[in-house]
Write a structure and sequence with these properties.
Helix content: under 10%
Number of strands: 40
Number of helices: 4
Structural class: mainly beta
Largest sheet: 22 strands, antiparallel, barrel
Radius of gyration: 25 Å
């Protein structure tokens, strides 16, 4: 079925012609793509080479890069939407959906291309190139906490799906996401205040100043809400600074800071059968002491050089992060007397250096872009897991104090044989060293008493390493005008967590092998932009959520196949229509069982208006297909619709956004397992859910000067 769909799409694309897309595929991640100068618009009368001043042409459509899914989300994709939280930003990424459980301060559960990235393990995240995944996190490998990001600071989001780019190593299997902040604004200062139901309030202030050739951009933001669950209170404060210092007309130095402090009370994942029976409300909690507290501060220093045939980038960064999570998924299932609440503490700081050098050469008409780069990062981590009741410890499960150092080097060769054919060949080598000590409870079965005995506080010491080699290759063909066809192959990796690797002797990192065929089409001077691809990904060791330990555990080899389709239409400059369709089939190889919690079909629709008179409006819908879970359970599909209206005149803007305007009853996170909801009560096996947001509204007023 997949191959038939692909052939139909390819034949459709070949029916059209137009002009070539000439974007350089090497400029995707670390350059500013928001303004493109159209050289073809220069007057043909300028035969003497006189300098002509022309206004820039702002391009709001996607650029052809190295895969059909290589995409920059910006401008019309999200400028006219409310961006109150990091969750709002993630929803703009085609084919990605997120869920949230245990409060609004914990990292999202992210689904992309059939990968349950749990809290980040299969998605590499960056802020202006600074890595923000947390390896060997106590709550899950590659923990990707995005809540420190102030959405209004982000100018665009660069996305690449699949493990095809040698510049990215650990966690870059389902995809790569880079949040690129503003360096310049069209105002000096602005302030926004908003209020909504559930006692939701937010305030944000921006200051932008140009002085002595430098740009200073500073933002502070605070918000709080009672939430729509009981409990569900969240309080947060955030700060952001981006200081740009020109060194010369070819080079720039940037200093970036981003940080936040937040705490949230969290409702439980609840047994759905109890909700359906009316024993509890879907917005209630069975353990109201669950909580998440987070503190994070990131500092980055970036130097960029861009000459005609040489580009270079060097970056140093430091991150401090402290996370404390109290969660209870099974209530009294494991401990009928004290309960199953789990405390997880992760305190770390990490620092790193990374950079690349790219050289452009020509041999005849053949163009070579040769890039070599490296990254070095060290994490210093203290972790604790403990059994608690009402956030009071009664047993320490384990403690670890360790360092994790990762080194990656890569070589990337991009060859342009002609305007219609390009090749990308790369290879990457990653090695990770672990050095740590700790104490661990060990459960052993006693054959004499026929019971499980727990040996407490067993000392653990480990000195180990793991490595992976990742080849990559892509071919880009433009056989006719306006059409680009992509063939991609690559291997990616997701390293094992330190506390798992400490017990193993195998030093190789499980890999993900991916392949893709796709096409991208641009018609009628950008009025219509389409992309389609078929792909496959095989993972050597799949990790899935385990309710007993509140983290992910390995569960064998898996395979995913899928089809992605994106369409953007802008018949007039003030109206924008978009549709994304993503189908995926995800199975374990050994028994062909579905990978739990995946949705096969995701459809996103949007129609938005930004009229010159100052009015703007948008209607966005998301269809989430049925999801298959453990124990042969299935959750229903749903369609949720959001609405935004607003008006801007002079310095004043007002907006009204309504999330889930039709008040659809739906469930956000869904798992299947057994629990014991009440002390010494009966077991409840089946679906356990967190509610999706009901109708939520927010009114915002802003001033800009």
């Amino acid at each position: 079925m997949i191959s038939k769909i692909s052939l139909i799409l390819m034949l459709f694309f070949f029916l059209y012609n137009g002009h070539y897309l000439n974007a350089d595929p090497t400029e995707a991640l670390f350059t500013d793509e928001s303004t493109i100068f159209d050289e073809s618009s220069e007057s043909s009368d300028n035969k003497e080479g006189k300098e002509i001043s022309l206004p820039p042409i702002i391009v709001v459509s996607e650029h052809t890069m190295s895969t059909a899914s290589d995409n920059t989300v910006r401008n019309r994709d999200f400028m006219n939407y409310p961006r109150r939280t990091a969750s709002d930003l993630m929803r703009f990424i085609p084919g990605l959906y997120i869920t949230q459980h245990t409060g609004g301060a914990k990292a999202h559960q992210i689904f992309l291309r059939g990968f349950d990235a749990e809290h980040g393990q299969d998605i590499a995240g960056f802020l202006d190139g600074i890595p923000i995944n947390e390896s060997s996190h106590v709550h899950g490998q590659g923990y990707l906490d995005l809540h420190f990001i102030i959405p209004e600071c982000i100018e665009k989001i660069w996305v690449m799906k699949g493990p095809y780019d040698p510049r990215f190593g650990n966690f870059a299997t389902a995809g790569v996401i880079n949040f690129i902040p503003y360096k310049k604004r069209d105002f000096n200062y602005s302030a926004d205040a908003s209020s909504g139901n559930k006692k939701t309030v937010q305030g944000i202030a921006h200051l932008f100043k140009e002085w002595y050739g430098m740009n200073s951009y500073v933002v502070i933001e605070g918000d709080q809400t009672e939430g729509y669950t009981d409990p569900g209170k969240l309080q947060a404060g955030r700060g952001f600074v981006n200081q740009c210092i020109p060194i010369s007309d070819k080079s720039e130095l940037r200093i970036l800071y981003a940080g936040y402090e937040t705490s949230s009370e969290a409702a439980d994942i609840l047994p759905k059968k109890y909700i359906d029976a009316g024993l509890i409300s879907r917005f209630d909690s069975l353990d109201d002491s669950n909580r998440v507290d987070v503190s994070r501060h990131i500092l980055g220093l970036t130097y960029e050089l861009s000459r005609r045939d040489i580009k270079a980038r060097a970056q140093a960064y430091f991150n401090y992060k402290k996370t404390k999570i109290f969660s209870n998924y099974t209530f009294y299932y494991l401990n009928p007397e004290m309960g199953d609440q789990l405390e997880q503490n992760d305190s770390r700081h990490y620092a790193g250096l990374q950079g690349y050098l790219r050289k452009t050469n020509k041999v005849g008409n053949i163009k070579f872009n040769t890039e070599g780069g490296m990254s070095l990062r060290s994490d210093f981590i203290d972790q604790t897991q403990a059994n608690t009741a009402d956030r009071q410890r009664f047993n320490v499960i384990n403690t670890y104090d360790f360092t994790e150092t990762a080194l990656g080097v890569y070589l990337d060769e991009r060859i342009t044989l002609a305007q219609w054919i390009k090749f990308i060949i790369g290879i990457r080598y990653d090695i990770i060293w672990l050095n740590g000590d700790g104490e661990q409870d060990i459960h052993e079965f006693d054959i004499y008493t026929n019971t499980v005995q727990t040996n407490h506080n067993n000392p653990v010491s480990f000195r180990t390493y793991s490595y992976a080699v990742s080849p990559k290759a892509s071919a880009i063909f433009s056989p006719i005008r306006q059409v680009d066809i992509f063939l991609n192959y690559g291997q990616g990796l997701v390293s094992k967590e330190a506390r798992h690797l400490a017990w193993e002797e195998d030093h190789t990192i499980p890999i993900v092998v991916g392949g893709e065929m796709g096409s991208r089409l641009r018609l009628w001077n950008g009025i219509v932009n389409c992309a389609a691809s078929v792909w496959i990904a095989e993972k050597e060791s799949e990790s899935v959520f385990d309710s007993e330990f509140g983290t992910n555990i390995p569960k064998g080899e898996s395979r995913r196949t899928g089809v992605d389709f994106e369409n953007r239409i802008s018949p007039w400059h003030w109206i924008y229509i978009g549709t994304d369709i993503n189908y995926v089939r995800a199975r374990f190889v050994q028994n062909n069982d579905p990978i739990p919690n995946m949705c096969e079909l995701l459809i996103t629709n949007v129609i938005s208006i930004i009229h010159p008179c100052g009015f703007k409006g948008a209607l966005r819908g998301r269809y989430l297909g049925k999801r298959e879970h453990d124990l042969n359970y299935t959750s229903k599909s749903n369609y949720v619709t959001d609405l935004l209206t607003g008006y801007e005149i002079g310095h004043l803007s007002i907006t009204l956004s309504i999330e889930n305007i039709f008040n659809t009853k739906w469930y956000d996170s869904v798992f299947a397992y057994a629990s014991r909801p009440f002390k010494n009560g009966a077991e409840a096996e089946g679906l356990h859910v967190t509610p999706g947001a009901p109708r939520m509204w927010q009114f915002r007023i802003g001033l800009k000067f």
